[in-house]
Structure formats: C-alpha cells, structure tokens
Design goal:
2 strands; two-stranded antiparallel sheet; 67 residues
C-alpha cells in the first residue's frame, strides 16, 4: 500500500520549484502583481512543498497503527 499519493508528491515538487525560483531570482509575481518579500515567500513555499508529503506520510502511518 502506498502511503503517499503521487498527487501529493507532485504538489510538493511544484511548490518547492516555485519557491526555489523566487529565492533564486528574487522576484515573484502573481497575476502581474509583485509579491512582497519574494525570498521569504519562496522559502515558505519550499518548506510547504517538503512538508506536504511528509505530513501525508505521518498521518497515514498513524492511521494504520490504529487499525
């Protein structure tokens, strides 16, 4: 049984990639409007991208222990 779905891994990779582009270039835009503090927001996206699959794994492993 898979503990982490492919969609969660893909979402994590997308968030981490978008975050890295903001950290690397120092510029991020949403609908043509610049984002304030793009490097900080980029690091938040990277942490979120790594955290989504990890949280899904932890939550599913705890759920299986109860059964």
């Amino acid at each position: 049984m898979k503990k982490v779905k492919a969609e969660e891994i893909a979402l994590g990779i997308i968030f981490a990639f978008l975050g890295w582009t903001g950290v690397h270039s120092g510029e991020m835009y949403r609908w043509g409007v610049p984002i304030m503090y793009p490097r900080v927001f980029g690091w938040v996206l990277i942490v979120l991208g790594v955290g989504i699959p990890v949280a899904a794994y932890i939550m599913r492993s705890r759920q299986n222990k109860d059964k």
